[in-house]
Specification:
Elements: E1 3-7, H1 11-22, E2 26-30, H2 39-45, E3 50-51, H3 54-58, E4 62-65, H4 72-76, E5 86-89, E6 94-95, E7 99-100, H5 108-115, E8 120-124, H6 130-134, E9 138-139, E10 142-150, H7 153-165, E11 169-172, H8 176-183, E12 196-197
Parallel strand pairs: 1-2, 1-4, 2-3, 4-5, 5-8, 10-11
Antiparallel strand pairs: 6-7, 8-10, 9-10, 10-12
Length: 200
Amino acid sequence: MTKIGILGAGKIGLAFAQHTARAGYETLLSNSRGPESLREAVAEIGHDIKAGTTLEAAEAGIVFLSVPWQHLEEAVSPVPSWEGKLVIDATNPVLPGMLAAPLNGKPSSQVVAELLPGATVVKAFNTLLFSLLASDPREAGGNRVVFYSGDDKEAKQTVLEIIKRLGFAGVDLGTLQDSAKLQQFPGGSLPGLNLIKLPE
């Protein structure tokens, strides 16, 4: 059974947790306030989802990262090692007041990867509005599109399998350097798009 740890229990993290728990993944939800603060959310989601600490969630082989950008470094730095982990980066480089975070010309996921030495980062699940991500991914006879990008083919295949199992359709954009900028908000052309892929 694949175990997925979720760092960040805001709207995106909760929406993703609903899908993974429903799809049968062993899911551990965490936030900066501790598992007790997630009791209500876990009860509402059901499907055997559990709440834990950030460190417990980061022990999973697959980690879904959805913390606010201004808390990113604070959230990931206590983890003793990211070696060998697959991190799904659902963050966007937005600061309070909807200000764009300074990235020095790098894609935001490259900045994330530098904070997680030894991890393999795949950018995904960050372009859909919360209301769309939380809703049924099967619509109008097709599946809602989730864009993803990364530098490791095996990691991207694993993320694609998750995307499909949750009921979405995955579209591979390429590497982090070449394509992640298309995904990030602000600046990218893909955030906010609601595309449906019909069966071939």
